[in-house]
């Protein structure tokens, strides 16, 4: 049976804008090179080579994204599947900057006796002879570097997806490496593996919800394109049941990644069990990518039905702020406390997100919702990675001393470290002259302008509750007696020192001089259709 050949005139080659997609291509290309390095390079050379490839790729990609942002690029690339617009480019730059700091923490070896925070052999049974032999031989998992590149590449694609199918693929590309990274802790491996399993199972459920929602929206609109769904909303009068069901299921999948209540149950367990450098990377970068993806889908594709989905986001935002702030008070572990803190921050971001939906197409006299969310994500990301970097330094014989009782009197033992951590906590609390204060002012202002003032009232009250548990840790560090068996403060290598210093500098600068970054976020504009 002969094959049927189409005339050449009937075939249109797809147009790929390689220049505009260069930041993505560099990251994914470097990740593939990293996989080849793992296959062909001798083990002793891998750590240095992988670190060099990762750092160069992240820096080059960040520079390319910065150039595109300066050129104010706004186009739908790859046959309309990827939006290269202001919010996407701003997100790319911030993601890459935070990834660079996270990679420094991944590469740290001087804190734990010359070994990294990652297991030597992931396949070895915890506590087995094979694990002891791997540790004695100083075996390391250098696969963490290409996995990190795949994760950040997926996050960049997720934030720029203009097509629901690309959105789903990007979600899996950045989620699967994170599931692996969460289970690779060198110390307390069982709790690390438990965290990875919980994250994987709950992530699989959320992906199923997302995919079902995508199918229903395709059934409603006949297209996967965000702009096409928006056009279908404007022209169709029937099929509201499928539209509402699809919107709800899509919202579940996206809100899971944001860590919003009631889809937050994975957050404290995963934050506690994952290697602390990975926790910092996830806490900052995943939230950024997930929020921009959420806003793009709901603003661009579903903006015409905002009166249908806005009540759902109102309820989720209130629950997220209240639960995150109140449950954090009961936590006795530093990492779990920071996890519930991140849940509360997701609620604050949702107030700005729903505010613009109430206002309509935009805000002309004041800060826009997109500008507020972009700035808040920057002001939250840097202190978050800095705080988790500090957590890696407080150690006892079992590794990191994360129980709050172990932090008593830390200010007497290491005033500088305790002072830096206290400053990060004050930023999370939104105290003036820190990045957190300006970030909260931005999102509350946008929500108020958009008519969501009841949410702002709840947010302010939640912030007051949250301030209590942040100040409680500061009081514990500086006004408690130092116990006889107090943990040690490890001497950090240049990598951790750089990560803490960069986080601290950004938190101070964004608190004192927020104008340039706010202006950049304003210049990013709105999502293109």
TrEMBL record:
What GO molecular function annotations does the UniProt record carry, in alphabetical order?
A: NADH dehydrogenase (quinone) (non-electrogenic) activity; NADH dehydrogenase (ubiquinone) activity; quinone binding
Please provide one cellular component term from the Gene Ontology annotations of this protein: plasma membrane
One GO BP: ATP synthesis coupled electron transport
Which EC number(s) does UniProt give?
7.1.1.-
Domain (NADH:quinone oxidoreductase/Mrp antiporter transmembrane) spans 161-464
Q: Which terms are listed as keywords in the entry?
A: Cell membrane, Membrane, NAD, Quinone, Translocase, Transmembrane, Transmembrane helix, Transport
Q: Which reaction does it catalyse?
A: a quinone + NADH + 5 H(+)(in) = a quinol + NAD(+) + 4 H(+)(out)
Record keyword Oxidoreductase present = no
Name the residues that span the membrane.
Answer: 20-41, 48-69, 89-107, 144-160, 166-187, 199-221, 241-266, 278-299, 311-330, 337-361, 373-394, 415-435, 455-479
User: Pfam family example for this protein?
Assistant: Proton_antipo_M
Compartments where located = Cell membrane; Endomembrane system; Membrane
The first-level EC class reads translocase
Q: How does it sit in the membrane?
A: Multi-pass membrane protein
Q: Kindly report the protein's main subcellular placement as a broad class.
A: membrane
The subunit field of the Swiss-Prot or TrEMBL record says: NDH-1 is composed of 14 different subunits. Subunits NuoA, H, J, K, L, M, N constitute the membrane sector of the complex.
Q: Please explain the role this protein plays, according to its UniProt record.
A: NDH-1 shuttles electrons from NADH, via FMN and iron-sulfur (Fe-S) centers, to quinones in the respiratory chain. The immediate electron acceptor for the enzyme in this species is believed to be a menaquinone. Couples the redox reaction to proton translocation (for every two electrons transferred, four hydrogen ions are translocated across the cytoplasmic membrane), and thus conserves the redox energy in a proton gradient.
Entry's family note:
Belongs to the complex I subunit 2 family.
* Protein name as annotated: NADH-quinone oxidoreductase subunit N
Origin organism is Kribbella shirazensis
The gene from which this protein is expressed is nuoN
């Amino acid at each position: 049976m002969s094959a049927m050949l189409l005339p050449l005139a009937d075939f249109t080659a797809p147009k790929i804008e390689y220049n505009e997609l260069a930041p993505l291509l560099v990251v994914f290309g470097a990740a593939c090179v990293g996989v080849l390095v793992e296959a062909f390079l001798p083990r002793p050379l891998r750590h240095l080579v992988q670190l060099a490839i990762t750092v160069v790729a992240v820096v080059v990609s960040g520079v390319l994204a910065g150039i595109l942002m300066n050129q104010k690029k706004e186009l739908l690339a790859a046959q309309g599947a990827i939006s290269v617009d202001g919010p996407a480019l701003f997100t790319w730059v911030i993601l890459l900057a935070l990834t660079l700091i996270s990679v420094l923490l991944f590469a740290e070896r001087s804190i734990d006796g010359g070994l990294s925070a990652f297991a030597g052999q992931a396949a070895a049974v915890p506590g087995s002879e094979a694990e002891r032999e791997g540790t004695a031989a100083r075996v390391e998992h250098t696969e963490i570097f290409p996995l990190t590149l795949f994760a950040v590449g997926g996050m960049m694609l997720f934030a720029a997806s203009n097509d629901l199918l690309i959105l789903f693929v990007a979600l899996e590309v950045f989620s699967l490496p994170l599931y692996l990274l969460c289970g690779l802790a060198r110390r307390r491996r069982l709790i690390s593996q438990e965290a990875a399993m919980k994250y994987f199972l709950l992530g699989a459920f959320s992906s199923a919800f997302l995919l079902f929602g995508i199918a229903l929206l395709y059934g409603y609109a006949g297209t996967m394109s965000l702009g096409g769904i928006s056009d279908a909303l404007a022209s169709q009068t029937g099929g509201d049941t499928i539209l509402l069901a699809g919107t709800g299921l899509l919202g579940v999948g996206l809100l899971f990644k944001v860590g919003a209540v009631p889809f937050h149950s994975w957050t404290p367990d995963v934050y506690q069990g994952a290697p602390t450098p990975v926790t910092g990377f996830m806490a900052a970068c995943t939230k950024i990518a997930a929020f921009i993806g959420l806003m793009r889908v709901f603003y661009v594709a579903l903006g015409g039905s905002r009166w249908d989905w806005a009540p759902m986001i109102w309820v989720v935002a209130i629950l997220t702020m209240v639960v995150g702030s109140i449950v954090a008070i009961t936590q006795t572990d530093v990492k779990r406390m920071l996890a519930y803190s991140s849940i509360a921050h997701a609620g604050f971001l949702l107030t700005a997100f729903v505010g613009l939906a109430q206002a309509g197409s935009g805000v002309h006299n004041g800060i826009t919702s997109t500008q507020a969310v972009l700035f808040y994500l920057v002001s939250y990301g840097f202190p978050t990675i800095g705080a988790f970097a500090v957590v890696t330094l407080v150690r006892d014989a079992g590794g990191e001393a994360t129980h709050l009782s172990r932090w008593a009197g830390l200010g007497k033992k290491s005033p500088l470290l305790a002072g830096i951590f206290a400053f990060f906590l004050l930023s999370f609390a939104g105290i003036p002259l820190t990045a957190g204060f300006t970030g909260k002012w931005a999102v509350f202002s946008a929500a108020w302008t958009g008519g969501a003032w009841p949410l702002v009232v709840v947010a302010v009250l939640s912030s007051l509750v949250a301030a209590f548990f942040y100040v409680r840790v500061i009081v514990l560090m500086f006004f408690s007696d130092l116990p006889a068996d107090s943990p040690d403060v490890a001497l950090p290598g240049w990598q951790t020192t750089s990560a803490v210093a960069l986080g601290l500098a950004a938190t101070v600068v964004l608190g004192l001089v927020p104008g340039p970054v706010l202006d950049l976020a304003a210049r990013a504009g709105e999502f293109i259709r």
